[in-house]
Amino acid sequence: MSLTDALTGIVGAAHVITDPDVLDGRSIDHTGRYRGHASALVRPGSADEVAAVLCACRDAGVYVTVQGGRTSLVAGTVPEHDDVLLSTERLRGIGAVDAVERLIRVGAGATLAGRLLLLDALTMQWRELSVPRDPACPVCSARPRADQ
After folding, report:
1. Interatomic CA distance for residues 32 and 73, integer angstroms
2. Which terminal CB of the chain, N or C, has fewer other CB atoms within 10 Å?
3. Spatial CA neighbour of 41 closest among 59, 58, 65
């Protein structure tokens, strides 16, 4: 069984991409200065699927590059060794809010905007949670800072 077949068995055919055009677009950094090559893009939908993908790649001796938002300016998401790209974009789950402990369990692919929508839905104030502010994010830049 090929690695692609094994990955398809783990995450489903819709979440294993081997199209060269897609892989080329995912194998360059945000600045356009660094380019690599990938053999597949895998989009697991759970922590168990992530673990199984990593085990399959380890067993096949294939490198893995994890890709989140791909906004890095240091080429950290550029594959170097014909890697399998492991995308976190399907890991968007947002768990319950623990207002006492000021915690939210979120998936690696959950966006800040998604977390803020959850907070708005729960009528919690921005100041109640310690969430890093991204000045480039239109959602969080419109929010008051804790010191305002």
Report:
1. 10
2. C
3. 65
